[in-house]
Amino acid sequence: MSNSRSQDNMRKALFYTFLAIFVATAAVTLLGITGVVAIGDFYLKGLFSALLLELVGAVIGLYKATPFFQPQGPAPLWGRILQPSPDQLVARTFDCSGYATGVRPPWNLWLAVEANGFVWPKEGPVVVGANDQWTAQVFEDGRSPEFALSLFAAKGAADKAIRTWLSEGSRKGEYAEVKSFPGVQRLHRVDRLRL
Q1: For 102-126, what is each residue's pLDDT tens digit?
Q2: β-pair type (185-194, 146-154)
């Protein structure tokens, strides 16, 4: 940890040293060219050459350090619920829609109702279309008059836990109360929905 901090400090010191040299060279050269400061032609040519070399070095360094032409990596995992909106009155069965990016295997998106500290995932993962939009229908038969709707991302053991919870609840005809599913990521939440 201290070694990386030391390297970071060295980089900063080197950067600011070169920046100070560049600014000083540029200032003296420009003052000499404009005649504000009297500098002999021999020295002025040297200063101007140094300034040009510094500019070329800075442009090359910037070009090498900035990924101008490298392909963009995959979009980050992100999602939003557009409908329903907060504080909305909804029916027992209501339509949902939204956007999501970066959803590729092994990730799946799930809608879940949250109320009174418990989470109830809804049947089937959300399918994101080619235009990054998704739609789903949610049936909520809970007793809580107010609840939240969340969009979760899950993979691996978290995705399997949701699927197992849903299949066991369907088989038994009753879904167990669960406070959370370890490993899921909440992407968005719409609060204060009312039946």
Answers
A1: 998 899 999 999 999 999 999 889 9
A2: antiparallel
